[in-house]
Amino acid sequence: MNAELKQNMNKLVADLNVLYMKIHHFHWFVKGPNFFTLHAKFEELYNEVTEHNDSIAERLLQLNEKPISTLKECLDLATVKEASKVGTDVEMVEELVNDLETIDKELTATMELAGDDEGTADLLLGISESFQKHIWMFKAFLGK
Domain of life, per the record (predicted)? Predict the structure, then answer.
């Protein structure tokens, strides 16, 4: 595994860890007429993000590399930012769409770096497809 691929995969681990906490924040603090829908959707998504994060970290271990594993490392490396306020349900979904799109771009770039490592590329492709579906659904929620 080359250093750039390892760095990108660890960046994904970082972003997914921060995203996990952000989605929990949204899950806990969402209010309004969409509460029941979004509360359940956010729970579904943070559970999925946990599985994806674990899969990427375990892939690094399978390739004799070490995934980052501290909150400090995650916050230092992540592009996704922590939730900084309690916004409206619409603001939460808009922020989530932006974060999912950011991570999806990182997934695509990392797939390209994987080259002949079909196991890694396939893992990342599956995550990308899932995120693209969530992006589409959240944009539909927003009327976009």
Answer: Bacteria
